Amino acid sequence: MFTQCQKCKAIFRVNLREVTAAKGKLRCGECYSVFDATKTLSNTMPTPFQEVVDLQSVSPFKAATSSNKPGTDKNQTGKDTISIRENSQNTATKPNTYTKKRQPLNKWLLIAAIFLALLLPVQIYFNMKSRAAEEPRHKPDKIQMVNYNVFAHPNESGVLLISATMKNIAKFEQPYPVIEVSLRDSHSRVIALRRFRPSEYLQNYNKKLMLATNQQSQIKLKISDPGSKATRFRFKFY
Question: Which of 16, 22, 225, 235 has the least CB density, counted as fewest CB within 10 Å?
Protein backbone atom coordinates (compact mmCIF):
# COMPACT_ATOMS: atom_id res chain seq x y z
CA MET A 1 0.00 0.00 0.00
CA PHE A 2 1.04 3.62 -0.54
CA THR A 3 0.48 6.95 1.20
CA GLN A 4 1.60 10.51 0.50
CA CYS A 5 2.80 13.36 2.73
CA GLN A 6 0.32 16.24 2.36
CA LYS A 7 3.10 18.81 2.83
CA CYS A 8 6.01 17.77 0.57
CA LYS A 9 4.09 15.19 -1.52
CA ALA A 10 6.69 12.46 -0.82
CA ILE A 11 5.29 8.96 -1.45
CA PHE A 12 5.87 6.09 1.00
CA ARG A 13 5.22 2.36 0.84
CA VAL A 14 3.45 1.26 4.06
CA ASN A 15 1.44 -1.69 5.36
CA LEU A 16 -1.89 -1.58 7.09
CA ARG A 17 -0.51 -2.89 10.37
CA GLU A 18 1.91 0.04 10.68
CA VAL A 19 -0.73 2.60 9.88
CA THR A 20 -3.20 1.06 12.33
CA ALA A 21 -0.61 0.86 15.13
CA ALA A 22 0.26 4.55 14.63
CA LYS A 23 -3.45 5.48 14.47
CA GLY A 24 -2.82 6.89 11.01
CA LYS A 25 -0.27 9.50 12.18
CA LEU A 26 3.13 9.13 10.45
CA ARG A 27 6.22 11.36 10.30
CA CYS A 28 7.56 12.21 6.88
CA GLY A 29 11.15 11.15 6.26
CA GLU A 30 11.69 14.10 3.90
CA CYS A 31 10.20 17.17 5.61
CA TYR A 32 9.72 15.60 9.08
CA SER A 33 6.15 16.78 9.37
CA VAL A 34 3.46 14.57 10.87
CA PHE A 35 0.62 13.75 8.47
CA ASP A 36 -2.52 11.63 8.39
CA ALA A 37 -1.61 8.61 6.26
CA THR A 38 -5.21 7.43 6.01
CA LYS A 39 -6.20 10.42 3.87
CA THR A 40 -3.97 9.37 0.98
CA LEU A 41 -3.87 5.59 1.61
CA SER A 42 -4.06 3.70 -1.69
CA ASN A 43 -3.25 0.36 -3.25
CA THR A 44 -1.83 2.08 -6.32
CA MET A 45 1.06 4.47 -6.77
CA PRO A 46 -0.11 8.14 -6.49
CA THR A 47 0.87 10.57 -9.25
CA PRO A 48 3.03 12.48 -9.89
CA PHE A 49 5.65 9.76 -9.16
CA GLN A 50 8.19 10.50 -6.46
CA GLU A 51 10.72 8.35 -4.65
CA VAL A 52 9.05 5.61 -2.64
CA VAL A 53 10.41 4.58 0.74
CA ASP A 54 9.85 1.00 1.92
CA LEU A 55 8.60 0.99 5.49
CA GLN A 56 8.25 -2.76 5.96
CA SER A 57 11.56 -2.95 7.81
CA VAL A 58 10.59 -0.15 10.20
CA SER A 59 9.15 -1.15 13.62
CA PRO A 60 5.75 0.57 14.10
CA PHE A 61 6.42 0.85 17.83
CA LYS A 62 9.74 2.71 17.89
CA ALA A 63 10.72 6.05 16.34
CA ALA A 64 13.63 5.84 13.92
CA THR A 65 16.74 7.93 14.55
CA SER A 66 19.53 9.12 12.25
CA SER A 67 22.97 10.54 12.77
CA ASN A 68 22.23 13.12 10.06
CA LYS A 69 18.60 14.13 10.72
CA PRO A 70 16.37 13.65 13.74
CA GLY A 71 13.45 11.27 13.26
CA THR A 72 14.98 9.30 10.36
CA ASP A 73 16.81 6.00 10.00
CA LYS A 74 19.03 4.74 7.22
CA ASN A 75 18.23 1.36 5.66
CA GLN A 76 20.69 -0.86 3.81
CA THR A 77 20.16 1.04 0.55
CA GLY A 78 20.96 4.41 2.15
CA LYS A 79 17.37 5.72 1.84
CA ASP A 80 15.62 7.57 4.63
CA THR A 81 12.82 5.60 6.26
CA ILE A 82 9.77 7.12 7.85
CA SER A 83 9.55 7.22 11.66
CA ILE A 84 6.38 6.56 13.63
CA ARG A 85 5.21 8.98 16.34
CA GLU A 86 6.55 8.09 19.77
CA ASN A 87 3.07 8.30 21.28
CA SER A 88 1.91 5.58 18.86
CA GLN A 89 3.43 2.89 21.08
CA ASN A 90 0.86 0.56 22.54
CA THR A 91 0.73 -2.26 25.02
CA ALA A 92 1.59 -4.89 22.40
CA THR A 93 5.26 -4.79 23.53
CA LYS A 94 4.48 -5.45 27.20
CA PRO A 95 4.14 -9.24 26.95
CA ASN A 96 7.62 -9.51 25.38
CA THR A 97 9.12 -7.27 28.08
CA TYR A 98 7.43 -9.34 30.79
CA THR A 99 8.77 -12.57 29.30
CA LYS A 100 12.32 -11.24 29.18
CA LYS A 101 12.14 -10.26 32.85
CA ARG A 102 10.80 -13.63 33.92
CA GLN A 103 13.46 -15.71 32.18
CA PRO A 104 16.36 -14.78 34.54
CA LEU A 105 14.09 -15.32 37.55
CA ASN A 106 13.15 -18.83 36.43
CA LYS A 107 16.82 -19.61 35.83
CA TRP A 108 17.82 -18.57 39.34
CA LEU A 109 14.90 -20.51 40.85
CA LEU A 110 16.10 -23.64 39.06
CA ILE A 111 19.66 -23.11 40.28
CA ALA A 112 18.41 -22.58 43.85
CA ALA A 113 16.30 -25.76 43.68
CA ILE A 114 19.28 -27.82 42.45
CA PHE A 115 21.52 -26.33 45.16
CA LEU A 116 19.00 -27.18 47.90
CA ALA A 117 18.60 -30.71 46.55
CA LEU A 118 22.38 -31.22 46.70
CA LEU A 119 22.62 -29.61 50.12
CA LEU A 120 19.98 -31.81 51.75
CA PRO A 121 22.05 -35.07 51.83
CA VAL A 122 25.00 -33.12 53.26
CA GLN A 123 22.82 -31.70 56.05
CA ILE A 124 21.45 -35.16 56.83
CA TYR A 125 24.97 -36.61 56.97
CA PHE A 126 26.31 -33.96 59.36
CA ASN A 127 23.16 -34.16 61.47
CA MET A 128 23.55 -37.92 61.87
CA LYS A 129 27.26 -37.52 62.54
CA SER A 130 26.57 -34.88 65.18
CA ARG A 131 23.97 -37.05 66.88
CA ALA A 132 26.33 -40.02 66.82
CA ALA A 133 29.04 -37.89 68.43
CA GLU A 134 26.66 -36.79 71.17
CA GLU A 135 25.51 -40.33 71.96
CA PRO A 136 27.91 -42.32 74.18
CA ARG A 137 29.63 -45.26 72.50
CA HIS A 138 28.79 -48.66 73.91
CA LYS A 139 31.18 -51.59 73.42
CA PRO A 140 30.32 -54.37 75.90
CA ASP A 141 33.04 -56.60 74.40
CA LYS A 142 35.58 -54.06 75.73
CA ILE A 143 34.58 -54.81 79.32
CA GLN A 144 36.34 -57.60 81.16
CA MET A 145 35.72 -59.37 84.46
CA VAL A 146 39.05 -59.03 86.26
CA ASN A 147 38.25 -61.30 89.21
CA TYR A 148 35.26 -62.69 91.09
CA ASN A 149 34.39 -64.76 94.13
CA VAL A 150 31.21 -66.80 94.75
CA PHE A 151 30.05 -67.83 98.21
CA ALA A 152 26.90 -68.50 100.22
CA HIS A 153 25.19 -65.36 101.47
CA PRO A 154 25.91 -65.02 105.19
CA ASN A 155 22.42 -63.72 106.07
CA GLU A 156 20.10 -65.15 103.41
CA SER A 157 19.53 -68.87 103.06
CA GLY A 158 19.62 -70.43 99.56
CA VAL A 159 21.28 -67.35 98.06
CA LEU A 160 24.72 -67.04 96.52
CA LEU A 161 26.68 -63.79 96.73
CA ILE A 162 29.03 -62.87 93.90
CA SER A 163 31.73 -60.28 94.53
CA ALA A 164 33.52 -59.20 91.33
CA THR A 165 35.59 -56.51 89.66
CA MET A 166 35.05 -55.44 86.05
CA LYS A 167 37.25 -53.17 83.94
CA ASN A 168 36.68 -51.00 80.86
CA ILE A 169 39.57 -51.66 78.45
CA ALA A 170 38.15 -49.44 75.69
CA LYS A 171 39.90 -46.17 74.79
CA PHE A 172 36.72 -44.25 75.59
CA GLU A 173 34.24 -44.10 78.43
CA GLN A 174 31.01 -45.99 78.06
CA PRO A 175 27.80 -46.71 79.96
CA TYR A 176 27.73 -49.43 82.59
CA PRO A 177 26.65 -52.71 80.98
CA VAL A 178 23.93 -55.22 81.70
CA ILE A 179 25.63 -58.22 83.32
CA GLU A 180 24.46 -61.74 82.58
CA VAL A 181 25.42 -64.45 85.11
CA SER A 182 24.88 -68.08 84.13
CA LEU A 183 25.52 -71.09 86.35
CA ARG A 184 26.37 -74.33 84.53
CA ASP A 185 26.99 -77.97 85.30
CA SER A 186 30.05 -80.01 84.38
CA HIS A 187 28.70 -80.45 80.83
CA SER A 188 28.31 -76.66 80.35
CA ARG A 189 24.52 -76.90 80.50
CA VAL A 190 22.79 -73.85 81.95
CA ILE A 191 21.23 -74.51 85.35
CA ALA A 192 20.44 -70.91 86.36
CA LEU A 193 20.69 -67.57 84.59
CA ARG A 194 19.99 -63.98 85.51
CA ARG A 195 20.69 -60.54 84.02
CA PHE A 196 21.45 -57.52 86.20
CA ARG A 197 20.84 -53.93 85.14
CA PRO A 198 23.29 -51.26 86.37
CA SER A 199 20.70 -49.98 88.84
CA GLU A 200 20.65 -53.46 90.45
CA TYR A 201 24.35 -53.82 91.10
CA LEU A 202 25.41 -50.17 91.67
CA GLN A 203 24.42 -47.93 94.56
CA ASN A 204 23.21 -44.40 93.75
CA TYR A 205 23.17 -45.20 90.04
CA ASN A 206 22.02 -42.65 87.43
CA LYS A 207 21.94 -42.81 83.64
CA LYS A 208 24.71 -40.21 83.29
CA LEU A 209 27.16 -42.36 85.25
CA MET A 210 29.90 -43.63 82.91
CA LEU A 211 32.61 -46.28 83.17
CA ALA A 212 35.83 -44.45 82.30
CA THR A 213 38.60 -45.98 80.23
CA ASN A 214 40.78 -48.39 82.28
CA GLN A 215 38.46 -47.86 85.23
CA GLN A 216 37.77 -50.80 87.54
CA SER A 217 34.43 -51.10 89.29
CA GLN A 218 33.55 -53.28 92.29
CA ILE A 219 30.16 -55.00 92.02
CA LYS A 220 28.09 -57.37 94.19
CA LEU A 221 25.43 -59.69 92.79
CA LYS A 222 22.94 -62.02 94.45
CA ILE A 223 21.60 -65.16 92.74
CA SER A 224 19.57 -68.15 93.91
CA ASP A 225 21.67 -71.19 94.84
CA PRO A 226 20.99 -73.91 92.20
CA GLY A 227 22.62 -76.59 94.38
CA SER A 228 25.62 -78.78 93.99
CA LYS A 229 25.06 -79.28 90.28
CA ALA A 230 26.38 -75.80 89.53
CA THR A 231 30.11 -76.15 89.08
CA ARG A 232 30.85 -73.34 86.61
CA PHE A 233 30.06 -69.64 86.29
CA ARG A 234 30.00 -67.50 83.15
CA PHE A 235 29.73 -63.70 82.85
CA LYS A 236 28.56 -61.85 79.78
CA PHE A 237 28.08 -58.12 79.19
CA TYR A 238 25.41 -56.36 77.12
Answer: 16
